[in-house]
Amino acid sequence: MLTKQQIQELEKQQYRMVGNHSAVKVCGWTKKMLRSEGACYKFKFYGIRSHQCMQMTSSMFCANRCTFCWRGEKAPVAKVWKGEVDDPDTIIELSQKRHMSLLQGFGGNDKTKDFLFQEAKQVRHVALSLTGEPIAYPKINELLEKFHKAKISTFLVTNAQYPEQIAKIKNVTQFYISVDAPNKIKLKEIDRPLFPDFYERLLKSLDIMKEATYRTCIRLTIIKDQNDLDLQGYKTLIMRGSPDFIEVKGYMHVGASRKFLERENMPMHEEIDTFTQSLIETLGDEYTVTSEHKPSRVLCLMHKRMQGKQYIDFPKFFEIVNKENDNKKDEKSNENNETPIANSLDYSNEKMTPNC
């Protein structure tokens, strides 16, 4: 899927290719936590340990070319999958090897805390949000299941252009939809989508999100003087997806985004806070601010139904999803019986949000 020149460019920027279409890169917050210099907002918001987090993607291509994306056009633009489809087991094994190869230098660094480096050798969380569109990978559901079987939690981020792939997801630790603008006109301007029915795809994805049994989040990346408007438009989209959480994050003027946006388009944290307060007033009493991470210029909003459930109970999560998968396998092996084994866990009528 990638040319030799594209791969070389990615390698220079500390990406590591995994098979034919996946990649890993160490997040800056992983490095900071190894040096005890702070942790990612996901640690503060949900309990994700940054030094044990692996940042990756299962698909390098994307159907959008967002103006605010700092990663730039490093990978193919495509609507449909092209080329080989790697096996999930291979992706998981090679991703962890590539990830650890990038961390080796920290083992001999005086600033690195040794006990944190030893813990980092065991990946406990994967953020499927590196670049491209990870959910486009045809075997995304199988990949998630295998991560969970290995007791590795998952955050999956999508730009909502593949609702048919979202519908396949059975379980994920937390599922994200990026809502990059409050209305169709601005979304086309900011995301520069390939699909002509891009907005309808977003709406369908939000409908699927609303019915999900796993934790959900809508991420807003606020670009000053670009999409920090039409609060009613945001309200309509947010209510349609009814996420458990909303992350309101400021655009950062770095990387390839500087081709399309100015430094003045990067809001300060105080401006993100002001926008968030206005958004809360528009949403009514459904959401409240639960936390903020000033270095990342991001605030976390939580739905009132999630009271006491912000932090993830990882052992409980793995117990639920892995037992459910085992039960499904038992059902399949006994599909000819008159009374197949029933699923002993039923959370179809409530969000699967274990209380930490």
* Share in β-strands: 5-15%
State the major sheet: 10 strands, mixed
User: Quaternary status of these chains?
Assistant: single chain
Number of helices: 12
- Give the terminus-to-terminus CA distance: 41 Å
Q: What is the tally of beta strands? A: 10
Average pLDDT: 88
Shape: globular
Helix content: 25-40%
Rg (CA only):
20 Å
Brief characterization of the structure:
With 356 residues, this protein is an alpha/beta fold. It contains 12 helices and 10 strands. It has helices at residues 4-12, 28-34, 41-46, 88-103, 114-120, 140-149, 163-166, 184-191, 198-210, 231-241, 269-283, 314-333; strands at residues 16-18, 22-24, 53-57, 125-128, 153-158, 174-178, 216-222, 245-250, 287-293, 298-303.
Structural description of this entry:
By secondary structure, the chain is α/β, with parallel strands linked by helices. It has a single domain (11-306, 315-321), classed as Aldolase class I (TIM Barrel). Helices cover 35% and strands 15% of the residues. It has 12 helices and 10 strands. It has a 10-stranded mixed β-sheet with strand order 1-2-3-4-5-6-7-8-10-9, sandwiched between helices. The radius of gyration is 20 Å and the shape is globular. The N and C termini lie far apart (41 Å).
Task: Give structural attributes.
single chain, 356 residues, TIM Barrel, 10-stranded mixed sheet, 10 strands
Write the layout of secondary structure elements.
Layout: H1 4-12, E1 16-18, E2 22-24, H2 28-34, H3 41-46, E3 53-57, H4 88-103, H5 114-120, E4 125-128, H6 140-149, E5 153-158, H7 163-166, E6 174-178, H8 184-191, H9 198-210, E7 216-222, H10 231-241, E8 245-250, H11 269-283, E9 287-293, E10 298-303, H12 314-333
Parallel strand pairs: 3-4, 4-5, 5-6, 6-7, 7-8
Antiparallel strand pairs: 1-2, 2-3, 8-10, 9-10
Helix pairs in contact: 4-6, 9-10, 10-11
